[in-house]
Amino acid sequence: MDLFKLYEPMGGDHFNIFAAGLKTADRVITVSRGYAWELTTSEGGWGLHEIINENNWKFRGIVNGIDTVDWNPELDLHLQSDGYRNYSIETLQAGKPQCKAALQKELGLPVREDVPLIGFIGRLDHQKGVDLIAGAMPWIVGQDLQLVMLGTGRADLEEMLRKFDREHHNKVRAWVGFSVKMAHRITAGADVLLMPSRFEPCGLNQLYAMKYGTVPVVHAVGGLRDTVIPFDPFRERAGSGGRSTGRRPTS
């Protein structure tokens, strides 16, 4: 261990298995090019950044893929009841509004096609940037839009979602817990999916959203930066979503 300097880089005499793997592997794969770069920084490497930089030549980032049978609006079993419907790119203009109306009805929101419906699906944790949504809540409830949040995690953040639901029940719905069915239905029914993660090695929800014709709006970190191309209003068919580089709610 002395020869290969495989002691715990954060201090102490513990053997670090990940450091050993980095030094002895022929190639190292992570889940996106952006995250591969972030691992070389002191903030992203968590004490291993020097070892990672020494072995950077063997690093590659390969973006996650999705199950195109399970996550497919044409086949999705969760869209075959309660007023939802399956749709394809050819039937998107009829199918997606129907799913939106069904979601609004199921959650008890006013059924309005003209109001933007924003969704959030994720673990309620500091990493996922839920507090950034909380910081923007005064602005959100002042707009003519609706917000649906699905997640479970820290008890204080779960209670925060319930509080938003109680105080802004005509615009905000909180589903505390996790439901595969509701995750699929939010992805299909929402106009926009928020992902304000502080760090995200790759992420899957933005890929699901794009598959369902839902616009992902993400924090430009890790794989979110790699997979979501910013919309350009001056170019035809340019971009797949929105990206923010700020960490303030107003960003």
TrEMBL record:
InterPro entries reported in the protein's UniProt record: Glyco_trans_1, Starch_synth_cat_dom
Pathways per UniProt: Glycan biosynthesis; starch biosynthesis
Pfam families named in the record: Glyco_transf_5, Glycos_transf_1
Stretch forming the signal peptide: none
One Gene Ontology term from the biological process aspect of the record: starch biosynthetic process
Protein name: (wild Malaysian banana) hypothetical protein
Gene Ontology molecular function: glycosyltransferase activity
Source organism superkingdom: Eukaryota
Species of the source: Musa acuminata subsp. malaccensis
Domain Starch synthase catalytic, chain residue ranges per copy: 13-53
Keyword Transferase set for record: yes
Glycosyl transferase family domain: residues covered: 111-230
Keywords associated with the record: Glycosyltransferase, Starch biosynthesis, Transferase
